[in-house]
Amino acid sequence: MARKAGYTVIAGLDEAGRGPLAGPVVAAAVILPGE
């Protein structure tokens, strides 16, 4: 869907944790080749 819209770089994001008020949060992003 994103490639059809013309985007050439797509990142996958994820987060885990309880939020800044209840504890730490860890976030990560990954960009993989389109092939």
Characterization of the model:
This protein is mainly β. The chain has one domain (1-35). It has no helices and two strands. Strands 1-2 form a two-stranded antiparallel sheet. It starts with 11 loop residues before the first strand and ends in a 5-residue tail after the last strand.
Instruction: Report the major sheet.
Output: 2 strands, antiparallel
Task: Write down the Rg.
Answer: 14 Å
Number of helices: 0
Query: Which spans of ≥5 residues are poorly predicted at pLDDT below 50?
Result: none
What is the mean predicted local confidence, pLDDT?
A: 84
Amount of beta strand: 25-35%
Distance between the termini: 15 Å
Order of helices and strands: EE
Layout of helices and strands:
Blueprint (H helix, E strand, L loop, with lengths): L11 E6 L7 E6 L5
Antiparallel strand pairs: 1-2
Explain briefly what this protein structure is:
The chain is an all-beta fold and 35 residues long. The chain has one domain (1-35).
Keywords:
single chain, mainly beta, 2 strands
